[in-house]
Each structure stands twice: as structure tokens, then as C-alpha cells.
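Sample intake sheet
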Amino acid sequence: MTEIQDVTGTAFIVAEYRAEENAEAHPLYLDPIVPLFLNERTRAAADRIAAGFPPGREGVKLRTRYFDDHLDAQLGNGSRQVVILGAGLDTRGVRKQAPGVTYFEIDDADTISFKRERLAEAGIHAPIVSISGNYVTDGLLRLLDANGFDFDLSTYVIWEGNTMYLNRPAVLEVLTGLRESVGELAISFDYLTEAVIDYATGDDQTSAFVRRFAEMGAPWHFGIDDIAALARDAGLIVVDNIKTADLYRTFWPSRPLDSIWYDNYSLCTLAPSEGISL
């Protein structure tokens, strides 16, 4: 059985935060699959990273709801392929199965093997094409082409928790490559402001949270202050862009919004100007 030794890896941290929502009286979403990947060690690691900084956990939950909602809309609009970049312990290929829809998940071989074995042990089978590789250094389009991806089918790409680890050229390469090669496309991703990356928000708790990721070997490098300019450089348009602060007010109106984190952490959906209806 495959074991992941480094349970402090970001995939496990994010999965722990996502799983917490299952215990809420009125959850933003339900993810009954993610607990299969977790244990006491992953829980302890997640607690250390978000110590004293609840927004770190809450941001993951809000973005999960955003991507789930947009995936539902895209499937309803006819998307037949879903690509999840840097998939980690994403469970949408199981939770959001739909007739005639194929999921393509790209991540490192160890994560894919671990995930596949846990699902198999639970008797869970889903139409997921697991692709071992690094979509930046190995080439996203090459990886997709080698694994049965149909560039002519309507496709939705989920790029969750990735852009901040890259740089502008790498992000543009992914966006431009998809726009040039996929017939019908929409792509959603999350991003941070440059102030977060530069430890310049003026908020000590936010800076400490960013520093803890760097200390665990997963530093953030890239922030975006002008999403429209990035989209334009990639030949795309912004069809949706929202701060997690606005999602917070929508879904948790009775909770105090007590951190600037939410104003510095956003989600967006881009598409070609002639793109699919959204």
C-alpha cells in the first residue's frame, strides 16, 4: 500500500480544511470522500499551519464552494471533460460524476498512487484519467495528448491552489496553451495579491501564515493585482472574478469579517472571447 510520508504536504493540509465543513450544521458543500485520505497526523499538521489564523482554513472552504458551483454550471452547459491541474486530493471526479464526462487529474506519481489505492480500498470507481507528471516542466498539452484528452470537446479546467507557487510566465504558458489548443474552454483558478506574496499587507497574522508555507518548503511566489491584464495577455477574458470577502458575506452573513486576508484572496473564471456560454 502506498504511504505518503510527508503528511505536512499542501495536499493534505488543504484536504483537512476542506473536510472540516462536513461537520457544520449548514455546510457550504459535502465531501464524504476526503476523509479517506486523512488521519491524526494530517490533522495535527493542518492545525499547525493555520494556528491562530482561521482565515487560512475558511478560505479553502469558500473556494471549494466556488469551484463546485462553477463545475456544476459547466457540466450543465455541456462540458464533457474536466481537467484538474495539480489535483492533489481533489474529490470532484467522484463527487461530481456525470454521464459522458471524463475527469483528467494531473499530479505527481506518489500522490496519484496514494489516492487511487485509498479509493480502491473503499470500493470507489470513477471515470478519472490520472496523469503522473508536472504540467509546467513536462508540458501540459503533451501530458493531455498522451492520455486520451480530446482537444475538440468542451472542457472545464480547475486550477485550484496552484498559481501562487508559479510565476507569471508559467501561468501565462498554461493559459495561452489551453486557449490555443482546446476548442471550447473555461478555466477557474484562485490567486493572491502581490501584497500577500511580498509580506506587505500590514497584517502580522497574514504574513505569519504565508511564512509557515515557506517554512514547510512550499513558498508562494506569484501574486496578481490586475486579473484583466493577465487574461488579456493570454488572449482570454474575465467572465467572473470575486474576492473571498464577498463570498464570505454571501455565505456567512452573520459572521464577522475580521481579516484582510479575504480581500487579498480571489477566485476567477476565464474563457476565450468567443467562449462557451457561462
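Comment: The domain at 10-272 is CATH 3.40.50.150 (Rossmann fold). The chain is about 40% helix and 15% strand.
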